[in-house]
Amino acid sequence: MIRFWPHGIGAWLLIAFLMGGCAQQEVQTPATSEPDTLISLVKRKIEEKKRLEEFRRRRLPRDFFIKIEQYYPIIRKYSKRYGLDWRLIVAQILKESRFREDARSHVGAMGLMQIMPYTAREITRELDIEYIEKDPRENITAGIYHMYKQLKYFPEARRVERIKLALAAYNCGPGHVFDAQDIARYLGMDPNTWRAVKACLPKLTSKDWKLHLEVWELGVPNYGYFYGFDQTIDYVDDIWEIYSYLRKMF
Fold it and tell me: Known catalytic residue: 96?
C-alpha cells in the first residue's frame, strides 16, 4: 500500500529536485553551460513548487491526503482494471464531491462520484453491487466503471481526446456529445477532439435552430436541446487542470 502524508509535498519536491527534477523529466546540463543555466533551473523548480503549493491550498480539502490513503486501494484496483489513470479518477472525485461521502446534488446525484439513481440501478444490474448510494467504495467502483463505459463511445478519438470526450459524456450524457460531434462534422471540424466538441456544445440550444435545420433532417438535435453546456465545459477543463497538477504531485 502506498503511503501519503498530509504535509509531504515539500519533502516530495525536495527529493525530486535532488534526484534531478520532476517525475518523467531529465534535465541534462552540458559541462560548458553558462552559470545562469543552473540559476534558471533552480528558479523554475522554485516556481513549480510555489504553483503546487498554491494548488494544494486552493483546490485540495484539508483531509485530502487522509482520503487518498483511505481510498487509494479501491481507486487503484478499478482504475487499473479499466485502463484509467488513478490520478484522473482522484481529479474527478475532487470535482464531483471533494471527497465528501455524503455529497448529493440538487438533481439527486450521490456519493463521491455523484452517481445518478438511474445510473446506479443500471450498474447494480451489470456489476451486481447493491450499495452504491451508501458504500463509498462501491460508489467509486461504480463511478470508474461508468467512466470506462463512456470511453467506449469514442473509439476513433486519440487517447487524450477520448478521455476528455468521455468526461463530457459522464457529465452531460453521451447523447449531447454525439450531437455536438454532428455539428462539428457539418462545420468541417474534427469531431473526435474536445476542442471541436467544446466549440459546438453551445450550438445545441434553440437559438441555433437555423443551423439545426442544416445538420438534422428533423431540424432539432437528436438528443434534444442542451442548455447546460457551460457546466460541462467547466467540468472537463477543470478536471484536466486538476489532473495535470496531480501528475506532478504523485
Answer: yes
